[in-house]
Amino acid sequence: YWRTARRSVELRRSLRADADEKIGDLDNVKKAYVEDMKLKASVQYWNEKKQGHTNNRRVAFNHLRNFGLAGGLIGLIVFWLAITFMLEASGVNVLGWMEINPPKGRTIALSTYVVVTAALGTVLTVIFWTARVLVRQYLTERRLEGDAEERRVMTQTYLALISEGAAEDEDRLVILNALFR
Q: What is the DSSP-derived secondary structure letter of residue 107?
């Protein structure tokens, strides 16, 4: 009788331990499901944000490339025209068809050279400033794309931790603070 009673107690303890373990596993699955449903939308959101920033980065790069080609060509042409004008006005014959002859006994005023140099400087400043704005826009989109990818990966990692039962409330707090910084 005592042997059977001890065996019965051992079996009940064993079954209780197995049942507690299975209940814990079910609780982990339930917790993972609830968190997964909460954060699944966040993963999708950050993935969509990343795709949007990727597209915007490509557009910004195309604008930068096209402006770089056009602005560089325009800058070279304006620079060449200014230098050619100044050399012709100084008496150096650069182009046969272009002849700048001041009236006899007079020279071309210094203000003409200043105006041409100022116009050249203005055109080049506009080109460089526009290029600077386009570069800043490209770099911003690139940074935002990386940030969205980082947040998506953090959310997925947290979901994986939850599904394995390794995430605690402190982990959730850290992840959520990082996601919504």
A: -
Structure tokens at 149: 């990818």
Q: pLDDT for 44-95, tens place per residue?
A: 888 899 999 999 999 999 999 999 999 999 999 999 988 888 877 776 676 6
Q: Is 109 helix (H, G, I), strand (E, B) or coil?
A: coil
- Compute CA distances 87 → 8, 90, 115, 141, 159, whole Å: 111, 5, 15, 45, 71
Residue 60: count of CB within 10 angstroms of its CB: 20
pLDDT for the residue numbered 120: 92
What is this structure's pTM? 0.64
Q: How far is CA 172 from CA 3, 43, 157, 163, in A?
A: 49, 15, 11, 13
- Paired tokens of 120: 């050249």
Task: List own/partner pairs for 87-92 with CB under 8 A and 24 or more apart.
Answer: 89/113
Cα separation, 147 vs 179, in Å, equals: 10
CB count in 10 Å sphere of residue 51 = 12
**C-alpha–C-alpha distance, residues 44 and 37, integer Å:** 11
